[in-house]
Write a structure and sequence with these properties.
188 residues; mainly alpha; 434 Repressor (Amino-terminal Domain)
């Protein structure tokens, strides 16, 4: 019997989507958390990952595993993202069985460490759509906006907005973002 083979990207993507949906996470929350670890991700990039359309190297695999662990509140193992009933292709001449993946990757990933958003010479915290729109509305740079939001709330606008409207409609998130912009304007 010939084993069905899937690409690592499609296996990881399907597992990321299953974990995200099962735990009620939004595309934006995963993109935002991945940005906090240095990936320049948008919701569109998360969708591309979930559909297996982007290559998944070790840095991405580690950061996505850590991001999901942080959001879910439970340590995940690399094997949680690599789990599959089928084998996976590595190259056009090599593949790996599901059993081998389980043996190699079923221990929880040690924490990558909590990043504190810092702003300094040329160092700007990751900016999402909410940050870009807020900076434009306030007429300030992303660095200035990040400095203000960290000073006021200790977090980015996206992180603060997701606290206020964690599972809201786009309209609710928009309302929360406008409220936060008003708070920033008042503290200027």
């Amino acid at each position: 019997m010939i084993m069905e083979l899937k690409s690592i990207s499609s296996v990881v993507g399907a597992n990321v989507k299953a974990l995200r949906v099962r735990n009620g996470l939004t595309l934006e929350s995963l993109a935002s958390k991945a940005r906090s670890y240095g990936l320049k991700w948008t919701t569109a990039r998360v969708v591309e990952l979930e559909h297996g359309r982007i290559p998944v190297g070790l840095p991405v695999l580690l950061i996505v595993t850590q991001s999901l662990s942080d959001l879910i509140g439970t340590p995940l193992a690399l094997g949680d993202l690599l789990r599959s009933q089928s084998g996976m292709t590595l190259t056009n001449k090599a593949s790996v069985s599901p059993e081998t993946v389980s043996r190699m990757f079923d221990s929880a990933v040690p924490s990558l460490g909590k990043h504190e958003a810092t702003v300094g010479a040329g160092n700007v915290a990751p900016a999402g759509l909410a940050e870009s729109r807020a900076a434009k509305a306030l007429g300030v740079s992303l660095q200035e906006l990040t400095t203000r939001s960290l000073k006021l709330w200790g977090k980015t606008i996206t992180e603060r907005r997701d606290e206020i409207a964690p599972v809201g409609t786009p309209q609710a998130r928009g309302h929360a973002s406008r409220q936060l912009i008003s708070e920033l304007r008042a503290c200027a």
